[in-house]
Amino acid sequence: MKIAVVGAGFAGLASAKILREAGHEVVVFEKAPDVGGVWSATRRYSGLTTQNNKGSYAFSDLPMPRHYPEWPTGEQVQDYLEQYVARHDLAPLLRLSTEVVRAELSPAEDAWLVTARHSGEAVRDPEQFDHLVVANGIFSDPVIPQFDGLASLLRAGGKIVAASQVPTTAEAEGKHVVVVGYGKSACDVAAAVADGAASTSVVARHLLWKMPKKLGKALNYKYLLLTRLGEALFRYQDLEGTAEKFLHGPGDPVRRSMVASVGAVTTKQLRLKELGLVPHSEFETIARSNVSLATDGFSEHVEHGRITVHREAEIERFTTDDDGAPVAILSDGSTVRADLVVCGTGFHQRVPFLDDDVTRRLQDDRGNFQLYRQILPHDVPHLTFAGYNSSFFSPLSAEIGAVWTAALLAGAFTLPPVEVRREHVTDRVDWMEKRTEGRHARGTNVIPFSMHQIDEMLDDLDLNLSAPRRAGQWLLPVDPSAYRGVAGRLQERLA
């Protein structure tokens, strides 16, 4: 087949590599001038590092370089992806600085017509493809709320941007910065700009639990959450195996004690009580929709007054003070200067190059994506998704998803009937929505159940690791290199 892949992040590059190995002609469209997706130089915010340690955040056949720190920077991750491109000679497949403006099904719905535009050039004629892989990323389109008084802010010389639009701290130097949100990007940016800004205020509607990179300043968190045991501490939709059934059955008091003890150490280590930053929810909610690492230096900045956190607060409106300077009026009654407003307020999950009819066929009536295995839609032919399974192990999840797609296109396994798939996805999304209180990224967030999802894909193909090898991942962090032979085993089967 001739296959179009939209996006050159982890998911797009893994799809390109594995689908080409399966014999397809692949073209990768990427609107940025470099590969990387969220790690592109065009989108990296100041202070960006990985959530994972370098050992677990890698493709199966290319470990992160040894000289990288335990938590690589955004620039290092992008460089790692450039190495992946070179290793597998993917450069001829890439069309960088080329945005897909529209992708539409042919009248007979047997092909895709992809219309693209290279930066600075006119829109090109549509190009026909047999299959389309959407890998545009669920963290690619930042949300900037439409605050009241926004025009007043801008007229007074204020500026509002997304966290990904703060590539350096220079823009915040000497300014009064307001950061909206309390997720990873919000706290990272706040900590990065705090030293040079005139003031830094964090406006947090909800405080989230965050995990120190090293618990007790000694135990790397990878031994707690990047193992199968760590994943099993949280209840999956369907309990699998004796250990999970024990932990969420007779052993539930033990499980609760383990989770609570981690919360207690976290609270003490980050001095959350002293700083007034203890969330109202139980520590177990740390994995409700994501797990965020505590930003280096954030607590210290709060302690020394360089960051002020307004908890359970929102921006009600922007206005100006008596001197004509921009200010934000908060719901807690505070008024804070707002020269620069940085929004770490999440992302839209949408595919802007698909028309309304196709979009409706992809989603339920609440806007949730209806994708079997987070990959395959029910009602749109010749289309799969890559990277729509936000995961602890994004590179490995992307790679296994690409293997699943290659097997699907080759007819190498039998799908359940579409009625069964519909019921499965509906039940899954309902469960995700309830357990995350709606923070499930429209059905695309599988955290913290990354390995469960990888197991499901590999079990479909009868390509999973042996039970003893998986057992070794219960107490030790998952090593992507254990899955190095999976794609090759599929190729042998297809041959």
Q: How many discrete domains?
A: 2
* Uncertain parts: none
Oligomer: single chain
User: Reading side by side through the largest sheet, how are the strands ordered?
Assistant: 3-2-1-7-24
The name of the CATH topology of the largest domain is: FAD/NAD(P)-binding domain
Helix/strand/pairing category = alpha/beta
CATH superfamily grouping of the largest domain: FAD/NAD(P)-binding domain
Number of helices: 16
Measured between the Cα atoms of the first and last residue, the distance is 16 Å
Number of strands: 24
CATH class term of the largest domain? Alpha Beta
The gyration radius over C-alpha positions equals 23 Å
Q: Average pLDDT across residues?
A: 95
Which architecture of the largest domain would the CATH scheme give at its second level? Answer: 3-Layer(bba) Sandwich
Percent in strands: 15-25%
* Helicity range: 25-40%
Morphology call: globular
Report the major sheet: 5 strands, parallel
General description of the model:
- A 5-stranded parallel sheet has the order 3-2-1-7-24, with helices on one face.
- The model has no long low-confidence stretch (mean pLDDT 95).
- Helix 12 (394-409) runs parallel beside helix 14.
- The two termini are 16 Å apart.
- It has 16 helices and 24 strands.
- With 495 residues, it is of the alpha/beta class.
- Helix content is 31%, strand content 18%.
- The protein has 2 domains: 2-141 and 348-494, FAD/NAD(P)-binding domain (3-Layer(bba) Sandwich), CATH 3.50.50.60; 144-212 and 270-345, FAD/NAD(P)-binding domain, CATH 3.50.50.
